[in-house]
Specification:
The protein is an all-alpha fold. The protein has helices spanning 27-38, 42-64, 67-84, 95-127, 135-143, 146-152, 158-168, 174-181, 185-203.
């Protein structure tokens, strides 16, 4: 596809003095343009872009609420329209509703992707904020291989093993474990310390 998508929200929409693709206004013309686009008609695609880009940008902007991202998503929508125009079925709805549905779906996908990335970053940040490791924990982490620790877990009590697994294999902080098990943070620290000491002794690690 060689058509340049140059419209942005800041550019005025200009109608050429003489439009060779002119048809009576309305959705019928959009249907005709989509059918032409499905056949690889680049001038028809440029005309379709000129006619509906402002509406697509407006809808996308209401969903993503970020002008720069709205422009990006608008461009993505028209790339999708160029590639999938042949999927449009006039018997299932109007051309405008089909285009706007594509735009809304693409905008929602962008929002969900951004929210998912933000949650991952937040979780990683919270886990990296100085998770409290006491001296015994540091000894175990630096002197034992993970598989050795796993084999030694059977030597722990159920409560100790639960705390160790949550902290060192699931990545939870002391506070998160306390909330999950509904016990005080001090209890979690005690179980971890006792469990790690017992684990160290069971595996014969020197203090």
């Amino acid at each position: 596809m060689r058509v340049a998508l140059t419209w942005t929200r800041r550019e005025p929409v200009r109608r050429p003095a003489e439009d060779p693709l002119a048809r009576p206004s309305g959705d019928g013309q959009l249907e005709r343009l989509l059918l032409q686009v499905a056949g690889g008609d680049e001038p028809a695609f440029a005309e379709l872009y000129r006619r509906v880009a402002p509406a697509v940008f407006g809808l996308v902007g209401k969903v993503v609420r970020n002008p720069a991202q709205a422009e990006e998503v608008t461009q993505e929508v028209f790339v999708e329209l160029w590639r999938s125009a042949s999927r449009f079925d006039p018997g299932r709805g109007t051309a405008r509703s089909w285009i706007m549905t594509c735009a809304h779906r693409r905008a929602v996908d962008r929002v969900r992707s951004a929210e998912s990335a933000a949650r991952r970053d937040d979780l990683a940040g919270r886990r990296d904020q100085g998770r409290p490791y006491d001296e015994v924990a540091e000894q175990v982490e630096t002197s034992l291989e993970r598989e050795q620790v796993r084999r030694g877990l059977d030597a722990l009590t159920e409560l100790q093993r639960e705390a160790v697994v949550l902290a060192y294999y699931r990545g939870y902080t002391h506070r998160e474990i306390a909330e999950l098990l509904e016990v005080p943070v001090g209890t979690v620290k005690t179980r971890l310390r006792d469990g790690l000491i017992r684990l160290r002794d069971h595996l014969g690690v020197l203090a």
